[in-house]
Specification:
CATH superfamily: PknH-like extracellular domain
Structural class: alpha+beta
CATH class: Alpha Beta
Number of domains: 1
Largest sheet: 7 strands, antiparallel
Strand content: 25-35%
CATH topology: Protein Transport Mog1p, Chain A
Number of strands: 7
Order of helices and strands: HHEHEEHEEEEH
Distance between the termini: 27 Å
Length: 219
């Protein structure tokens, strides 16, 4: 895997590894928008068991939102978009064939309204601009019926035109991100992006319904 592929999750990983590690999953469901606890955020993040075909880069980690983590999750305009946020979580994985890396992030808010208000601030102000970095225009992806609202872009993420994809999804009181990088053109496919987004969204919904998240890539 190329060195540039690891840079995507480096900022998140460095900050989160300073804190303790989260735990892992199991559960089911369909409606509800409860504010999540720190433990539920940790459980919402996929672990190695949920990520068939991928290897964990570091254990899913959830922390209380503070100045450090606001700078990680909401890094522009004086941390705009992190108002009324409670917890931050991240997990990272890598795959050998084809070579790719993916980082999952969650920001848990104290209400659905707070998550709604943060959505455009963070997508327009930061996350939506994280692909297409070598001057090639990023492609907007249609994800289908996932979450309450979502956006996705596929483009380039490195100096040599390596492919990258970023997605942002709101599920109730949470904002969710998948950030994927690959070594070669064609090593990220649209169906694979949708599978990652759908799994994370289902896990967040299960947690907000009061169940242990169980959604996995293979089902």
């Amino acid at each position: 895997m190329t060195r540039s592929m690891y840079k995507w999750c480096a900022a998140t990983a460095v900050a989160l590894l300073l804190a303790g590690c989260g735990e892992s999953p199991t559960g089911d469901s369909t409606t509800g928008s409860a504010a999540l606890t720190k433990e539920q955020v940790g459980l919402t993040l996929p672990d190695g068991e949920a990520m068939t075909g991928w290897k964990q880069s570091f254990q899913p980690t959830a922390v209380e939102m503070d100045e450090l983590y606001r700078s990680q999750a909401c890094p522009v305009n004086d941390n705009a978009g992190c108002e009324n946020s409670r917890f931050f979580g991240a997990a990272a994985f890598q795959r050998e064939n084809p070579a790719a890396s993916v980082t999952f992030q969650i920001v848990a808010y104290d209400s659905e309204e707070a998550a709604q208000e943060a959505y455009d601030v963070l997508w327009d102000g930061y996350y939506g601009n994280q692909v297409g970095l070598t001057g090639q225009k990023a492609k907007t992806l249609e994800l289908g019926p996932i979450g309450d609202e979502h956006d996705a872009r596929l483009g380039t993420s490195g100096f040599h035109g390596e492919p990258g994809a970023v997605t942002q999804t709101r599920v109730g009181t949470t904002l969710l991100w998948t950030m994927e990088k690959a070594a070669h053109k064609g090593d990220i496919d649209e169906d694979g992006i949708r599978d990652l987004v759908s799994m994370l969204a289902k896990r967040s919904q299960q947690a907000q319904n009061g169940n242990e998240p169980s959604a996995a890539l293979n089902g």
